[in-house]
Amino acid sequence: NLNVILKNLSHKEKEGDYISFLQEKRIAEARQFLGRHCSLLSDIEKAYGVPKEVIVAILMVESSLGKDHGRYLVFGVYTSLASMLDRKVRESVRREAAKAGIDINSPAFKKRITSKATWGLQELACLLRLSEKGKVDPFRLKGSWAGAFGMPQFIPSSFEKYGIDWDGDGKVKLDRLPDAAASVANYLKTHGWKKGMGPAGALGVIKRYNHSQPYADAILELSKCLKR
After folding, report:
1. What confidence tier does 183 reach under pLDDT thresholds 50, 70, 90?
2. Contacts with 150 (C-beta within 8 Å, 6 or more apart), sequence order
3. Distance between CA atoms of 183 and 155, rounded to whole angstroms?
4. How does residue 196 score in pLDDT terms, banded at 50, 70 and 90?
5. Which helix (H) or strand (E) holds 72?
């Protein structure tokens, strides 16, 4: 899918991508969600030391609290990206990118094609491992154009490393709140979240979840609003 490939190659994060999540309507929605699930989220906070407000903020920004997991077949995203390892596919991508006004001769673009193709193959292999173990159905799993899925928008390798079966039913289900929230908390704790850490430390850990500064700023600001 050339459209998926071009989006992955050209996308750049902007501060404006996250402004809507700090509007009063979205804050109120997140606050109501936090109230409805306070007992569960408090238990997860106690277990991992990650504030429930931060968990809810991430779930809101990533998937609108589970309402928008994405419409792309995750298997298709990664096979498309991995296909760029083939020379003929790369040539097709370069032609389409040039038509879209992308500078295909820049060193950054050439490097991005290689890195995205290699990454896509690694995530595809991980997705197939998860399938072999019966953890996901790769032919039904839908997510974002970037290959992320579930309430917390994990990629396959994050699912494999940090997914938590909080409700104890024997399967990690990122489309269900208990497992999704615990998996977010586990990810953040594993990447250095400590109880009572300051804003600078919190920003650093959140940027391990998503490398975007505007994203991290929005998560912290929304979590502050939820604490008030």
Report:
1. very high
2. 63, 69, 143, 159, 174, 175, 180
3. 12
4. confident
5. strand 72-73
Nearest Cα residue to 61 out of 228, 227, 209, 185? 209
What single DSSP character describes residue 46? H
pLDDT-based confidence at 203, cuts 50/70/90? very high
What six digits make up the tokens of 161? 């490393």
What does the alpha-carbon distance between residue 16 and residue 120 come to, in Å, rounded to a whole number?
27
Token digits of residue 18: 């996250």
Token output for 49: 């030391």
Quote the DSSP letter at residue 12: -
CA proximity to 213, closest of 224, 226, 198, 200: 200
User: Could you give the CA distance from residue 146 to residue 32 in angstroms, rounded to a whole number?
Assistant: 29
pTM to 2 decimal places: 0.94
Q: Do the beta carbons of residue 179 and residue 164 sit within 8 Å?
A: yes
